[in-house]
Amino acid sequence: MKTLLNRVYADYLMPSRLGEYAALLRAAAEAGYAQVSVRSFFRDLNRTAQRGRTLVHRHDIDSDLRTAKKMFAIEARHGVQASYYFRLCTLDYGFMREIEAAGSEASYHYEEIADFAKRHRIRKSDELRRRFPEIRELFARNIGQIATRLGAPLATVASHGDFANRRLKVINHELLRDASLRARCGIECESYDVELLRGFDMYISDRKHPVYYHPISPFEALGRYERICLLTHPVQWETNWIESTRCNLRRLLEEMAWRV
After folding, report:
1. By CB count within 10 A, which of 12, 133, 136, 216 is most buried?
2. Bridging pattern class, strands 189-190 and 202-206
3. What is the pLDDT of residues 152-163, one digit of tens each?
4. Cis peptide before 15 (omega within 30 of 0)
5. Domains of the chain, CATH where assigned
């Protein structure tokens, strides 16, 4: 019951946390942190003269474009750059072009493995992995179409997590273990690549109420760690009852279809 009440509060009742986000950007700037995108940070990793204190902002746009745009506006006021990863269901090319024009990064939050499993009602991991050649073609087609419509290459991408991935124990970024697929699509880095992750001293992800952050608050991390990555999801910073209801219903329907 407590878990359910916390979920209802997080989805429908929680006050906006965007003031907290603005305060974090100010605190990071005051502590001397450069605030950059995943793409910018990755490209600097192998340079001789590396950045000093750095806070990498990664936003996964699972849902709630409205709050994502508010976060972007806050970043613009503070001169902060970030990476925004969009699912097929959250693509907004006008917004994505605005992000790129500001020097930030707009790219792809891909989930072809999970989508394929749900669409074809595949319930065994070995069966799903046998279909990887088809799924790679689907990924290449999707990312190519996004890059064409955006008018810019997609240098980094980020894997989305879904209940189908957890059930089958097959993660979406298994797809990009194929070097030829990366080369073909022009992908320099996947957000869970070891080379990228080992560049961080601390990796923090936001969480739903009542936890908010894991493993520690980014406010606590400032000054203690040199290179920090902060993963955020807009829906966890401001309630959007229409979007939350839509996502909850979609998840319920997908789970029901999975069992049929």
Report:
1. 136
2. unpaired
3. 999 999 999 998
4. no
5. 33-44+53-67+76-237+249-259 (3.20.20)
